[in-house]
Amino acid sequence: MGALDGIQEEIQRVADQVSNSVVGIGQRWGVGSGVIIGKDQVLTNAHNIRAEEVTVTFQDGRTATGQVRGSDVDGDIAVLAVETGDAPAIEWGTEGTPGLGTPVFGLANPGGRGLRVTLGFVTGLERSFRGPRGHRITGSIEHDAPLLPGSSGGPIVNAEGRLLGLNTNRLGEGFYLAIPADETLRTRVDALGRGESTGRVRLGIGVTPPHVARRMRRAVGLPDADGLLIRHVEDNSPASRAGLAEGDLIVLAASRPVRGIDDLYEAIAAADGTIQLVILRGAEERAVDVQFGS
Fold it and tell me: Who is most buried in 86, 124, 204, 281, counting CB within 10 A?
């Protein structure tokens, strides 16, 4: 038997073992994929969820309505409660994070349009990416198993068909990131399965990065300053209640310089109910106290 025959047999064996644990998320036009992690529980990416209820398509073609049991938007994971019937749960890997060069199999059912199985290798470790709301997610596995759009939320597995990670982010040029299926993820998933959704404190603003802010300020004749330019303020948010407005430049948060979005996130995470921001409104500097909660 040739090497290619051996590869084909390995792919087929993994597909036979894992395919019934992989589901489609959304309608036929496609949203994403997911994986069964327990009786009546499906794990997927939070960015695949557009409403409290979502269509789940199983390998045998059956569809069911899933409901969000728990969601961590900033960690980009969500657990759905859905009737899984006889479809089995995937087995979690026990070897820890795979090393460079480890063969991985990517599986997906993009929007319920049918199973895909591909082969690749771990190409990098401890990678990071931005979640749906811009928070940095660290510790990801980089691999090159080819994946179609709509594959996020599907698993990467080892040769024994055990879960190594949850695909979540396409890097372009054939590389992908997966959240590692380690004890940290398992603990978070268990909590979401109990309905313990997590969410970070939010200001309720959209911002432009510092280099764009500087360019925009120059365009209207304002002096250069490092900071984040507010481009949108959500109604009835902590930011709107504090009087922040589109065009304000956030230069300090809790007395610390804001040179990028992570500086602001870290200051908000450390805040205890209230945070003081220093902004430039035009050329005028103002201190604004923002109170979180209603």
Answer: 204
230: phi then psi, degrees, rounded to nearest 5:
-75, 120
Q: Residue 124 in contact with residue 100, Cβ under 8 Å?
A: yes
- Of the residues 47, 71, 72, 151, only one is catalytic, namely 47
Q: Domains for the chain: give ranges and CATH numbers.
A: 3-193 (2.40.10.120), 205-291 (2.30.42.10)
CA distance 251 to 287: 10
pLDDT in tens, 220-262: 888 888 899 999 999 999 999 999 999 999 999 999 999 888 8
CA 190 to each of CA 17, 80, 177: distance values in angstroms, whole numbers, following the listed order:
24, 12, 22
Residue of 143, 144, 152, 263 marked catalytic: 152
Taking the chain, what is the end-to-end CA distance rounded to the nearest angstrom?
68
- Its sign, for the CA torsion 235, 239, 241, 243, is negative
The residue from 71, 72, 74, 76 that is catalytic is 76
Q: Mark whether 152 is an active-site residue.
A: yes
The verdict on whether 237 is a catalytic residue reads: no
Active site residue 47: yes
